[in-house]
TrEMBL record:
InterPro entries: Acyl-CoA_dehydrogenase, Acyl-CoA_Oxase/DH_mid-dom, Acyl-CoA_Oxase/DH_mid-dom_sf, AcylCo_DH-like_C, AcylCo_DH/oxidase_C, AcylCoA_DH/ox_N, AcylCoA_DH/ox_N_sf, AcylCoA_DH/oxidase_NM_dom_sf. Residues 238-387 form the Acyl-CoA dehydrogenase/oxidase C-terminal domain. It comes from the Bacteria. Residues 129-225 form the Acyl-CoA oxidase/dehydrogenase middle domain. The keyword Flavoprotein applies. Keywords: FAD, Flavoprotein, Oxidoreductase. The keyword Isomerase does not apply. Residues 6-124 form the Acyl-CoA dehydrogenase/oxidase N-terminal domain. PANTHER family: MEDIUM-CHAIN SPECIFIC ACYL-COA DEHYDROGENASE, MITOCHONDRIAL-RELATED (PTHR48083). This is Acyl-CoA dehydrogenase.
């Protein structure tokens, strides 16, 4: 296995790094970064910068105006973008939009792509993905309470979803619900698409959460007799579990790519501080207590990068990558949190202030261990596979 980057990959990495450093990091103190994430005004401004630099939508096909990168090249670009929490927003490759674009491109009909994916990929609109429920579907999608019933050729949806990232200000939603079979009409877990301005959709409340890097923050959505026409079924009725994996397996990996970049940023700040800050007669990095933390960071950064590239290569070879992405998501999310935690400790008092981005990375990294499946659920799934395969 050869993990050396090609000249083209090195150029891509450098282009994104330079763009993030020169154009995006200066926005990190912008007043338009709220407790519910960057505003749409700021997002659009950052998108324009990425378009001007030729770095917009690295995961989107060239036909739709993106860069058309494969998974390995995405890993390089996404990590470089993640060096700032605003980087993925700027490049239009942040969650949940990046995962929804992938899902629509693979499962959507021609009409659905024209109506939603085309303006979506261009950055003209945003989306959300409604799966998680209070007390219901989440890490276990089979515990779904949101139901859809037939009404002629339409579906009527009722239920509550929460922790829906980007709901506020998004133009459309992909709803994961349980269609109730009727006569010869099929039922089961299904994905339905709806514009957000439809009667029957209410953003019940905006959640005050630990993280704030996602445009629109996280919200609770109530569906009350929401009518969705049959042509808005994404894929087929009853095939929702299959499409969930189409979306989540690569999305777990792209999360890892982005947050590895954030961890690297925190580590760079901590290393610089450890060289400059003196205590007990020498730079604090020369004391074992600090130096060992930096060494552990370096090892975990390298380990995480290799896991990401390995899984990305598997996806590029056409392998499903579901179990590989579970292992990578668990390992990287926990490593990123440990790295961020050590960086806070190295910085001491300044580590818990907003004087550097380390405090922001720490908050985001803690949330990363939960979304797209908590570590415990991934370990359970990995253990089941081990036992099944002998």
């Amino acid at each position: 296995m050869n993990f050396d980057l090609t000249n083209e990959q090195l150029e891509l990495q450098q282009r994104v790094k330079q763009f993030i450093t020169e154009k995006i990091i200066p926005y990190e103190k912008d007043s338009r970064i709220t407790s519910h994430g960057p505003t749409d005004e700021l997002r659009i401004e950052l998108n324009a910068l990425a378009k001007e630099a030729g770095l917009f939508a690295p995961h989107v096909s060239k036909e739709l105006g993106g860069m058309g990168l494969n998974h390995v090249d995405m890993a390089i670009a996404f990590e470089a973008a993640g060096y700032s929490p605003l980087g993925p927003i700027a490049l239009h490759c942040a969650a949940p939009d990046e995962g929804n674009m992938n899902l629509l491109s693979k499962v959507g009909t021609t009409a659905q792509k024209e109506r939603w994916l085309k303006p979506f990929a261009a950055g003209d609109i945003r989306s959300n993905f409604c799966m998680t429920e209070p007390g219901g579907a989440g890490a276990d999608p089979s515990g779904m309470y949101t139901k859809a019933t037939y009404d002629g050729d339409d579906f009527i949806v009722n239920g509550v979803k929460w922790l829906i990232t980007g709901a506020r200000g998004s133009s459309f939603t992909i709803i994961f619900c349980d269609v109730q079979a009727e006569g010869d009409k099929p039922g089961g877990p299904t994905m339905l698409i709806s514009d957000m301005d439809q009667p029957g959709i209410t953003i019940s409340r905006d959640l005050e959460s630990l993280d704030n890097s996602f445009t629109g923050g996280h919200s609770e959505i109530t569906f009350n007799n929401l009518r969705i026409p049959a042509e808005n079924v994404l894929g087929e009725v009853g095939e929702g579990f299959r499409y969930v994996q189409v979306r989540l397996a690569p999305a777990r990996l792209t999360h890892c790519m982005r947050w590895l970049g954030a961890a690297r940023r925190a580590h760079d700040i901590a290393c610089d501080y450890a060289r400059r800050r003196h205590a007990f007669g020498k730079p604090i990095g020369e004391h074992e207590g600090i130096g060992f933390m930096l060494a552990d960071n370096e090892m975990e950064l390298q380990q995480s990068q290799l896991m990401i590239w390995w899984t990305a290569a598997a996806l590029d070879k056409g392998e499903k990558g579901r179990h590989e992405s579970s292992m990578t998501k668990t390992l990287v999310s926990e490593a990123v949190f440990r790295i961020a935690d050590r960086c806070v400790q190295v910085l001491g008092g300044s580590g818990v202030t907003k004087d550097t981005v380390v405090e922001w990375v720490f908050r985001e990294a803690r949330s990363f261990r939960i979304y797209d499946g908590p570590s415990e659920v991934h370990r359970w799934a990995i253990a089941k596979r081990i036992l099944r395969n002998g």
